[in-house]
């Protein structure tokens, strides 16, 4: 056999592939089963080779073992909603109290924008020394929460909203996943009114809705951020009501009518003291009313005409009533005051129904007798509630579609009976016991509770409507 006819012996070059990496993997010796027999060099070499494998990721977690650990807020633009449809929701309307800053002094960490002198510090009631042994506090006064609005802005700030969401997450027992969303109702930048919707609500077996409204954590949040929180159950009837009833004195008007009448005869001090105690719930309303009316004996009957020029319609009352009438509401004023003035106010504001007390007039002398007309019931707390229910029934309106607004203790039964009961700039006892309370500057703030924003309110209150 000649050398040219002898078959070629395979060479290493012929057996190699086009990939050095593949060749290396092909000829790499098998790793020892027992790693104890491997040298440190072999271990490191094997580790490097393993890391060179295509698409390998030694730190990639097992997706089947990853669990979702967080709570989703729509404030961060998350789109997923793990809660089933139809889950109950609660709406919290947060108002910043711009008219009453908790901390008027300028914080040392914030540069002053003006050269105005600082106001004098306010001493908490009960903390100053006294010579009266009965008034000496038995223990130091409870420190107020640190006011935060003067640090983070006189509005519902982002941090204020975040703090509220954290409080909501801590309320349910046991813990349950919660979804929240929010929208600014008056303006996007530095909002004064923000609406927060969250679901599901706390389990009523652990925390009922009335208790949630008065929860200590929410109260402390209000104090810290100088805000007020109004909680409502979300439903179509929250946004679409059909009947609104109002108290008159210190609600739709800034005056107390009987106090104004008392000025004419110089008994304002006695009457106003009784009025204040009655509105605070310290006195029986009917008995106190008869006592005050008795002091008006001999007052000329034309006093009501003179009072019309003295009465001051509350800020926002005209706009509020105009907006409600545009929406098709029936509106009533139910007053513990007097019928002539309630009728006059109804004409001024376009109110449909006016019910108040009737003073007896001596026809011969045309003066007040100091008595009430016995054929008309006294418009006290119970009668106001009865009137609310009867007016709603007369117009086929369920109570869930009614709203009541007042400030005195004689309004509490009415506030609790209505679908939405609002204590407006109310007395202390009423603020504590009413379902909701607002202490704003304008009655227009009540429209935010119906889910309306500034654009809606502007359209409803425009003169072209």
From TrEMBL:
Q: What is its EC number?
A: 3.1.3.3
Q: Is Amino-acid biosynthesis included in the keywords of this UniProt record?
A: yes
Keyword Metal-binding applies: yes
User: What are the coiled-coil residue ranges?
Assistant: none
Q: Where is this region: Disordered?
A: 1-27
The Polar residues compositionally biased stretches are: 14-24
**Gene3D superfamilies from the entry?**
HAD superfamily/HAD-like
- Per the Swiss-Prot or TrEMBL record, the active site comprises 247 (nucleophile), 249 (proton donor)
UniProt cross-references to NCBIfam families, sorted A to Z: HAD-SF-IB (TIGR01488), serB (TIGR00338)
What is this protein called in UniProt?
phosphoserine phosphatase
